[in-house]
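re: that complex we talked abt at group meeting.

here r the seqs, copy pasted straight from the sheet so there may be weird spacing, ignore it
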Amino acid sequence: MAIEVRDVTKRFGDFVALEDVSIKVPDGGLTALLGPSGSGKSTLLRVIAGLEQPDMGQVLISGEDNTQTRVQDRNVGFVFQHYAAFKHMTVFDNIAFGLRIRGEGNGTIRERVTKLIALVHLQGFEKRFPSQLSGGQRQRMALARALAVEPRVLLLDEPFGALDAKVRQELRTWLRRLHDDVHVTTIFVTHDQEEAMDVAEQIIVMNDGRVEQSGGPRDLYEDPASEFVMSFVGPAHRLGEAWVRPHDVEIRHEPNGQTIEAMVDRIVHLGFEVRVELTLPEGEQFSVQLTRDEVDHLELAVGQIVYVRPRSTRVFSADGGPPTVATGVS
Amino acid sequence: MSAPNPVARYGMRGLALFYLGALLVIPLGMIFYRTFEDGLQGPIDALTSPDGIHAFWMTVLCVGVAVPLNTVFGVLCALMLVRQNFRGKALINSAIDLPFAVSPVVIGLSLFLVYGVDGFIGGPLSDAGIQIIFSTPALILATVFVSLPFVVREVMPVLQEIGTDQEEAAGTLGASSWQTFWKVTLPSIRWGVTYGVVLATARALGEFGAVSVVSGKISGQTETLPLFVENEYTNFNLAGAYAAAILLAALALLVLFSMNFLQRRSRKAVDTDDDADATPGTGVLVPHPIEKEA
Amino acid sequence: MTPPPADTAVATPPKVGFRPPFGGEVLTRGIVLTWLSLIVLIPLGAVLLRSTDEGLGTFWNAISEPEAVAAIKLTVIASFVIVAINAVMGTLIAWVLVRDDFRGKRLVNSVIDLPFALPTIVAGLTLLALYGEDSPVGISVTYTKIAVGLALLFVTLPFVIRAVQPVLHEIDEEMEEAAASLGASNTRIFRSIILPNLTPAIVAGCALAFARAIGEFGSLVLITGNIPFDTQVASVYIFGRIESDNTTAAAAVSVLLLVIAVLILFALNLFVRWRSRHERA
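got the structure back, here u go
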């Protein structure tokens, strides 16, 4: 186990940021800490790094208890949302910083840094200052800087949060490829579930300072353990007591005993997918996701009365026991 | 930084406090102590002596004339520098800083040369029977010189920050230039003006070097309180010197208090940052752009 | 007192369209220029004129007069020394005010501005009270060069502190965290990360302090004894020349003092610009 967190609690005054949090991150894995703001995910990351001290619990890195170790001595690479670039140093010096601290020789430094600069595609930018780089470039520099000292684990705190959508997308792909090449245990924090699903092998979902569920992207999506996870990871709607995924719903023109009546409000064409917005008998809004072909086939129109039938529903029990899954038969 | 080790932390704190104490606080405390060491009567007598009373009113007069004049000048000059464009603007802007850069004695000399009986302006005036040097007008002139930049420098960044939007809006609503100035511009710069006035007053109250040169130091006629302090001291009237010094120190503390109060007032009305800007009074006298008011 | 950075407000082009109330830009300009001329420009110009009034030879004699040279030497050296002390102590005090926390910190923060508000003659008197002949702690510095240093330290106290505080406040703490995660010790972080970012502010504060120090008068007259060739500073020397009706000599030395001030300030300005070249995009 590369990283293990045991029963960590952290308070800031009256606010409980983490409560009894335990996680395990495998060696060489790529893990996402996913959750809304205030869920504690950044705090957990900082506790692992040693930038915050937990009030209770332990942090083990490579099997050793590092709870009391200073951040300087943990050998973790940390990448910040806003880059934390040393703005008074060139790109080269930024990346070389950790190596200089360790007293590496100039030759070694030059060799290592040059390799890293090539890795992050910043060739030609060595003598520039961070203020002369774009956001994406700064983040790549920050990554190179963190990797320079060959950390045991790489921690990224919402690394792409400050960038615009297109750059974010590019860097996501790039991060995954980098991980494939470099193979260092990586944990990144994000509030974007799509990002987590896209990049991570393991996702740890957090809410209100606690871990809700942990697993691979598919497991979380298809087998959510709680309402929160279901609605946070992937689209979800309530249908009475149950929860349902909008693409797990069928629309028919005739009832068949398992259906619910609804009226079509709006048909939104989103390229290949179509979102059909409906109003249910009690006035609630609901939407179903169909393919273009299905919509054509059904010849749906606004104002029509149709009948919806969920293919699979989940009801979550109040006491936190396993959810009840019902799969209808057509 | 990760938690600094306690020794370093307390060491630095101790050193800082010791330095400030030894240099500022304790000497000031000593003066208060020395003044009232032998009771209240001595200081009161010294201050209420004819020379003392005269010095007091002379100071009040100088400040009371110099500061309002420089306030009007300050606002106009700030408007000019921020809103207008003309050749030589950068020069004027640098010229405003001259009273900061020049020694008070040199300031006195400069006024002496121009307004003295042989001076460029003073000469003709003297022939006409008007004396400036070695009399009250010279003191006022010197006070004006040294307190000139404060209102300008405090108002400029405010004007810059506010921009012309509000004034333009007033224009579209039919306000005349005067109405816009009075009802829109002035109110929006009022904290900058007030702060500048406070700083100018402090400077004017304490002026010593320039007035030393231009006043002739004639007791009972051309003395301000600071000059009075020096005079008393050199004549071995320690009680008188201390008493006047205390009065001036008390006024200074009052100024300090108002600066702090105004600082916090203007920040509270205006603080839009949500960062942990809880440290109050950072840079009380390094003027900062006082932002747009809510 | 500390002038604000003058170039910020002027450098950006002003929005045209605002008309001052009294019916004209020209009138405002006229009033401002007249006031400025009468009060500042003409008098200072007179000093320049007077200094060379009796020829360059007299100018040179005036500034090479041994007593003058001694006074100027003392002034410049003393100013350099106390500026160096201020650079260190000022940064330290600013650090404590921004990074440390203790009861009464706010009060301490307000006290810093005391030298700005206090008349210089009173400043001199207060130092005398503790470090003069009747000193209760037995330290007497009157009539020594130490007195010069002490008075100058008093009046220049706030400059570096107030210049450094806002910058320290704004420093991106994540830079420090990043450095720590890369293994840097606290000292290393201060040296390599914080200090380089503070340097322009420290230098700016030093520049202001220096300008103030070389012209200082009021706080020095009582405590130093103004002994020629020993504790007499340039401003006192100038004052002496004025009193002896030798305004030419006074003007000459004044001009020299001004030139020194301008040169040092210019050099410091250049240094700051060079240092912050990496801030520009």
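couple things i noticed - Chain B touches chain C through 122 residues (CB under 8 Å). Residues 50-83 of chain B form the longest helix (34 residues).
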